[in-house]
């Protein structure tokens, strides 16, 4: 791409610091091979990038030609690999700090990389993401602008900018961007997660449940995430999904399960779950109220005593419920 032939003795000069082109004699066959070597066009490079392994992408990123998560970009002003060799330790250190989420330490190294190679997309995106994670709004947007200038059509730039906006007061701007990202790459976990949270913020709980279910097919949820799904499903009125989520989250959610089993007419399961709620639980008055309802419905002999216990332990939430409950009259 530089328009000239460079010749090095890579054994004696592994750093490729002394160009021997003016003195070295290349055979006719070697010169013909160099002349005929196929240089890919931008379109060919983009098409072939899909076949790169993660390690190959990382190596290209180290040379400054491509962001490790983006398509390779062949450009006429790309840096020579030999000129980038001095940056290898900086690139490796910055990458390690970024992966360990030590963003404040990574930022000066990423700025050093971009000072030497302003077109390094990977460094620009990591710089933008680091500032975003630290809440540096102005610096993050400036770095995203740089990334967009380097690769205007990059899906990675669009994705990470959307994730940034989703965490800011400008979250509504992220919605169409996240929708486009997910339409193009249905398995983009961070985008699905961000859009699910936005749907909750919008009060679109049915959509949030669908997105969270989709997310947890792609990666295993933690117990806390299952609990969150359970509450979102409850707000959506999706009792089966809520029950499944709380059951998979294991212990500590007997009140929620008792209420949900009750709604699903699984009265025996509801009774057992409600009786497991301990007296020190903040939801104990509600458990007593629901258990008293069940006692009447199940025609238990101690129904009157359970109603009396629910009244004895009533709180601001359960008192009006008890007063209006026709089963207790």
Explain this structure to me?
It is a single chain. The chain has 329 residues and is mostly helical. The protein is 64% helix and 0% strand. It has helices at 28-36, 42-48, 54-62, 81-84, 88-99, 103-116, 121-133, 137-150, 155-166, 171-184, 189-201, 205-218, 223-236, 239-248, 254-263, 267-275, 284-297, 303-312, 318-324. The chain starts with 27 loop residues before the first helix and ends in a 5-residue tail after the last helix.
Give a quick precis of the structure:
This protein is an all-alpha fold and 329 residues long. The chain contains 19 helices and no strands.
The helix/strand series, from N terminus to C terminus, equals: HHHHHHHHHHHHHHHHHHH
Query: Which fold does the CATH topology of the largest domain refer to?
Result: Serine Threonine Protein Phosphatase 5, Tetratricopeptide repeat
Unreliable stretches covering 5 or more consecutive residues: 39-52, 56-70
Radius of gyration: 30 Å
Name the CATH superfamily assignment of the largest domain: Tetratricopeptide repeat domain
**What is the overall silhouette?**
rod-shaped
CATH top level class name of the largest domain:
Mainly Alpha
Query: Mean pLDDT, rounded to whole units?
Result: 85
Helix/strand class: mainly alpha
Q: What is the CATH architecture descriptor of the largest domain?
A: Alpha Horseshoe
- The counted number of beta strands is 0
Quick one: biggest sheet? none
* Number of contiguous helices: 19
Distance between the termini: 89 Å
């Amino acid at each position: 791409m530089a328009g000239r032939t460079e010749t090095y003795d890579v054994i004696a000069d592994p750093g490729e610091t002394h160009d021997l082109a003016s003195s070295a004699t290349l055979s006719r066959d070697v010169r013909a091979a160099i002349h005929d070597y196929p240089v890919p066009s931008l379109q060919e490079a983009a098409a072939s990038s899909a076949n790169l392994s993660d390690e190959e992408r990382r190596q290209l990123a180290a040379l400054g030609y491509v962001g490790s998560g983006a398509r390779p970009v062949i450009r006429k002003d790309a840096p020579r690999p030999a000129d980038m060799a001095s940056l290898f330790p900086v690139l490796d250190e910055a990458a390690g700090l970024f992966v360990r989420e030590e963003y404040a330490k990574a930022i000066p190294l990423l700025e050093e990389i971009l000072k030497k190679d302003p077109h390094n997309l990977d460094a620009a995106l990591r710089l933008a993401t680091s500032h975003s994670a630290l809440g540096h709004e102005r610096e993050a947007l400036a770095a995203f602008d740089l990334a967009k200038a380097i690769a205007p059509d990059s899906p990675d730039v669009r994705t990470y900018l959307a994730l940034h906006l989703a965490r800011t007061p400008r979250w509504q701007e992220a919605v169409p961007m996240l929708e486009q990202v997910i339409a193009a790459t249905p398995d983009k976990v961070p985008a699905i997660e961000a859009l699910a949270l936005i749907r909750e913020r919008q009060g679109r709980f049915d959509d949030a449940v669908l997105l969270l279910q989709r997310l947890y097919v792609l990666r295993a949820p933690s117990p806390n995430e299952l609990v969150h799904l359970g509450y979102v499903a409850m707000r959506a009125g999706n009792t089966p999904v809520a029950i499944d989520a709380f059951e998979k989250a294991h212990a500590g959610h007997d009140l929620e399960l008792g209420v949900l089993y009750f709604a699903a007419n699984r009265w025996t399961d509801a009774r057992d779950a409600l009786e497991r709620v301990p007296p020190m639980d903040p939801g104990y008055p509600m458990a007593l109220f629901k258990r008293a309802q069940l006692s009447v419905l199940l025609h238990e002999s101690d129904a009157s005593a359970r109603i009396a216990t629910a009244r004895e332990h009533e709180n601001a939430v359960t008192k009006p419920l008890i007063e209006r409950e026709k089963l207790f009259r």
